[in-house]
Automatic annotation (TrEMBL):
The Transcription regulator PadR N-terminal domain, residue ranges: 16-90
Listed name of the protein: PadR family transcriptional regulator
SUPFAM superfamilies per UniProt: Winged helix' DNA-binding domain (SSF46785)
């Protein structure tokens, strides 16, 4: 089952819809609310593109002008509200993302797919550096999560929990892979090493290319 192709695909649009679902707001208030609720930790939010997102949401009928605020000599501020079509889009979009696994392309996976271009000893060193950074990040994440649990219901910190679990899983995998490089138990590691030392492609690697 694939995620449905939507009129808007920028995750920021979904964050805006869920923010306006709370109450009508002007763009500056939307940005402040997203920041206060920590949405910028789970979604890449470019506040400079917020107005473009608002225009696209209005163009497709997902938001509409609810009011125009005038306060003294300050510039007018347009207040937007979510429409019925916007609520429906928000629910369907969010439901798809929750239910249907989508293939993502983390840059670390890209690096792993290409690491054969580096000597195994160098990969071991680099992954060791990554492991050290991950361990620090995991420790910090646990402390942050404990602090958040003191003041917020779990419902509002589940994305922090998920991120921490993903970091822990990556840390464990990297630790295990580095151990295999160190003790030589990684299959074909010697062929990989000889290739970088002599330039000769091991027969087992050639067989893989021909499959």
């Amino acid at each position: 089952m694939a995620v449905k192709r939507r009129k808007l695909s920028n995750p920021l649009a979904l964050v805006v819809l869920t923010t306006l679902w709370q109450k009508p707001m002007h763009p500056y208030e939307i940005a402040q609310t997203m920041r206060r609720q920590g949405k910028d930790t789970s979604t890449r939010i470019n506040y400079g593109s917020l107005y473009t997102v608002m225009q696209n949401l209005e163009k497709h009928g997902f938001v509409e002008v609810a009011d125009v605020e005038r306060q003294g000599n300050r510039p007018e501020r347009t207040v937007y509200g979510i429409t019925d079509a916007g609520r429906e889009e928000m629910i369907h979009w969010l439901s798809d993302l929750m239910a249907v696994p989508a293939k993502e392309y983390p840059i670390f996976e890209t690096a792993l797919s290409l690491m054969g271009a580096l000597p195994p000893d160098e990969v071991e060193r680099l992954l060791g550096e990554r492991l050290s950074s991950l361990e620090v990040e995991v420790a910090g994440g646990r402390a942050v999560l404990e602090k958040l649990h003191e003041t917020l219901p779990r419902l509002f910190v589940v994305e922090v929990e998920y991120h921490l679990h993903m970091l822990e899983a990556q840390t464990e995998w990297v630790r295990g892979f580095v151990r295999e490089l160190q003790d030589g138990s990684l299959p074909d590691v010697e062929g990989w090493r000889r290739f970088h030392e002599t330039g000769e492609v091991p027969p087992e690697f050639t067989e893989v290319d021909q499959q």
